[in-house]
Amino acid sequence: KPLVFSGVQPTGNLHLGNYLGAIKRWVDLQDSHDCIYCVVDMHALTVNPDPVDLMVSTREVTAAFLAAGIDPKKHIVFNQSRVRQHAELAWVFNCIARMGWLNRMTQFKDKAGKDRENASAGLFVYPSLMAADILVYRATHVPVGEDQKQHLELTRDVAQKFNNDYSDRIASLGIGVEMAVGDETVSGFFPLAEPLIGGPATRIMSLRDGTKKMSKSDPSDLSRINLVDDTDTIAKKIRKAKTDPEALPSDVEGLANRPEADNLVGIFAALSGTDKAAVIRDFGGRQFSDFKPALADLAVARLSPITGEMRRISADKAYVDAVLKDGGERAGVIAETTMRHVRDIIGFLQD
Ligand code: TYM
């Protein structure tokens, strides 16, 4: 089975974008893939979180994975910092990635803001750690939202440069694998992992501004639906969501240049497991005053069982910690196998 890796940062509340863009899709991959799902606490450290908040958030995100339906026995769920090989490989990749590559990352530019001098060095080299997360398991498929696309391109660049720089060593050690690069078949140690970005919810937008991504850091809580929101709050946020005054269009093309309408239709499609065309077939020509209550009912029906389950699981700290420990041990075995090869390839002495 192909190997999937993905992660979520334990910072702030998980929201509908995290759920529809990532976690819900992770659940669907479990039958056809071997999956490793990670709470990336080392990534969260780049923004200097309060230690207690970080612990609470790490357990909460784990609870969300489990509540959404990820099976930690068949697959692996763990927090990143338990498996030291992520940090070890990230250092190797810091020496592979070029400053110019990292300089082009839009997420760094957004998160660092105007005061670049004051951003942590960790925030700048964050994509090297992300490449290490994926490649320390030699994962081939990475389900994420659209905003992570550029980081995954960098992951492929890092893998390719490592494979090239060390091609002779990899060949003489006899540990390369054949892989397709464009029309060619080449041999390398790290796979060129493919992003899995698809469906109607690759980029859920703010409920207050259809041109801005729904995000944990938006100061307005009305801009997002949090996984911990209660039924009334979800309904209220959808009722207050910004829209234009027109009715819904009669075909999907009519959603172009109507970002708020497009976003709400996309959310409806993702929650109901259909596509935007199907939603427009049902609601085309109807007013938002009809559509919003239907969307609110659907969101509540889909999210409240998860929210309830998340609360129940979060309360059982011992269970959550046991899942992370067991996942960390299993992940560590795979990661160490990769690192033994990497140390041989790059010339580090080991026993
Ligand atoms: P993070 O924690 O910001 O987000 C977790 C996942 O949620 C997706 N997402 C969205 N999808 C649709 N619409 C939105 N508005 C939205 N907001 C967030 C993200 O695309 C992501 O899939 N760097 C990553 C975490 C990471 C990772 C990895 C991911 C670290 N190492 C290795 C994959 C593989 C991040 O900050 O995600």
TrEMBL record:
A motif ('KMSKS' region) lies at residues 213-217. It catalyses: tRNA(Trp) + L-tryptophan + ATP = L-tryptophyl-tRNA(Trp) + AMP + diphosphate + H(+). It is found in: Cytoplasm. Its EC number is 6.1.1.2. GO terms for molecular function: ligase activity. Pfam families: tRNA-synt_1b. It is an enzyme of class 6 (ligase). Keywords: Aminoacyl-tRNA synthetase, ATP-binding, Cytoplasm, Ligase, Nucleotide-binding, Protein biosynthesis. A motif ('HIGH' region) lies at residues 10-18. It comes from the Bacteria. Belongs to the class-I aminoacyl-tRNA synthetase family. Homodimer. NCBIfam families: trpS. Catalyzes the attachment of tryptophan to tRNA(Trp). This is Tryptophan--tRNA ligase. It comes from Phyllobacterium phragmitis. The gene is trpS.
